[in-house]
Amino acid sequence: MFAIKLNPAFKRYAWGGDRLINEFNKGGGRAPLAESWELSCHRDGECLIGICSLSQLEPRWLGAPLKSYLDEHPEYIGEGFASADEFPVIVKFLDAGESLSVQLHPDDAYALASEGQSGKNELLYILDCGEDAELLLGLKEPLRPEDLREFAETGEIVSKLNRLQIESGQSYAIPARTLHAIRTKTLALEIQQSSNVTYRVFDYKRESFGEQKRELHIDKALECADLGACSPKPAGAFVLSRLGAEIRRISDWDCFFAYEVKSERKVGFKCEPDSFHAITMLEGSAVFVHGEQIEELEKGDTIFIPAGLQYYALSGKCSFVLVSCRRPEFDSPGEGEA
User: Fold this and answer.
1) Would you say residue 106 has pLDDT above 90?
2) 220-232 core/surface letters (b: 16 or more CB in 10 A; e: else)
3) Burial class (CB within 10 angstroms; exposed 0-12, middle 13-18, buried 19+) of 246
4) Rounded CA gap, 18 and 29, in Å?
5) Cα angle vertex 2, ends 317, 74, to 5°?
6) For residues 319 and 284, what is the distance between their CA atoms, to the nearest angstrom?
7) Buried b (16+ CB within 10 A) or exposed e, 126-147
8) Which one, 5, 99, 129, 167, has least CB within 10 Å?
9) Is a pLDDT exceeding 60 seen at residue 37?
10) What is the rounded distance in angstroms from the CA atom of residue 61 to the CA atom of residue 267?
């Protein structure tokens, strides 16, 4: 058993920018680049298996979809998983060169019945943003369904949403069914359920690469939108102190856990049989070590650690996000401080 470096799937949408290209060496230099799916078994953007330092990786797997590999080894996802169709999360970089549409994602019940896939709760972790960058998140006041339709058609829906001034290092939980929009000049890491269902309600009358206006989904949005008011704020960060590293829990949805790790030396983890770990590098560089396996990781790289790998370590001055679908052993109840 060994860890696997991944090659991402790229998404080029009209609102994308060039920061993933210039700062993370993504996308082969072709802009705009909106998203880089770093960890995914979803049919709309499957990650591929990259070069591994160990000869134990069979040649047939090099460049193969991670999903195909996990279909043969579902135990590497974690206990209780029968196939890669059940892989629970997507991790992606997102570069909003322009504002995203006002949109929502359905919950599990609606998405499974209408789209044949899971719903989408998501976490938005802000890596960098412009001085006046905003996140529109949830309604300021309750709306009736007919109001939502009218405001979506006129564009007034933008003024009905909470406007949050965002800063780098903040994270925001965006529950399914919640109207939201990421505004221009925002670079983020998005961690979400494995779903690619988005219902756009207003898109600034924008064209898709000069061809035609993008489709809106107002009728479907009306069927599942949360039309109640809310008062959102950044997600709280639970800090765990370890020798040589600072670890912050930035999300604890039932479907995934996410941690920001800042380290200046060697830091070790234990990957139990109940869940995989995935590490996405945000800054600096590190060396991943497990037994005889040694992998060099640079900014923007993602490595998949199969469930049950047990002990591994990263050495280097770096920051990264660690994702798991179960609470890792280092985050046991009662440790750390809020």
Assistant:
1) yes
2) bbbebbbeeebeb
3) middle
4) 8
5) 120
6) 7
7) bbebeeebbbbbbbeeebeeeb
8) 167
9) yes
10) 29
pLDDT category at 210 given cuts 50, 70, 90 is low
Give the integer Cα–Cα distance in Å for 198 and 187: 20
Give the torsion sign (CA, 191, 197, 201, 204).
Answer: positive
Which residue in 305, 303, 310, 306 sits closest to 329, CA to CA? Answer: 310
Residue scoring higher pLDDT (337 or 82) = 82
**pTM to 2 decimal places:** 0.93
Q: What is the pLDDT of residue 334?
A: 46
* Residue at token pair 């090099």: 62
274 in Cβ contact with 79 (< 8 Å): yes
The angle at the Cα of 130, spanning 128 to 133, to the nearest 5 degrees, equals 100
Percent of the chain at pLDDT > 70 equals: 94
CA neighbor of 257 nearest in space, from 266, 265, 248: 248
Query: Would you give the DSSP letter of residue 300?
Result: T
Please name the residue ranges forming H helices in the chain: 19-24, 66-72, 108-114, 145-154, 218-224
DSSP E strands: which ranges in 211-292? 238-242, 245-252, 257-263, 267-271, 277-290
pLDDT score for 336: 39
* Spatial CA neighbour of 250 closest among 189, 186, 177: 189
* pLDDT of 208: 61
The whole-chain average pLDDT of the chain stands at 91
Q: Are 303 and 278 in contact (CB under 8 A)?
A: yes
The whole-angstrom separation of Cα 197 and Cα 305 is 27
pLDDT in tens, 113-172: 999 999 999 999 999 998 888 999 999 999 999 999 999 999 999 999 999 999 999 999
Q: CA nearest 21: which of 35, 8, 37, 33?
A: 33
Which H helix or E strand runs over 201? strand 199-202
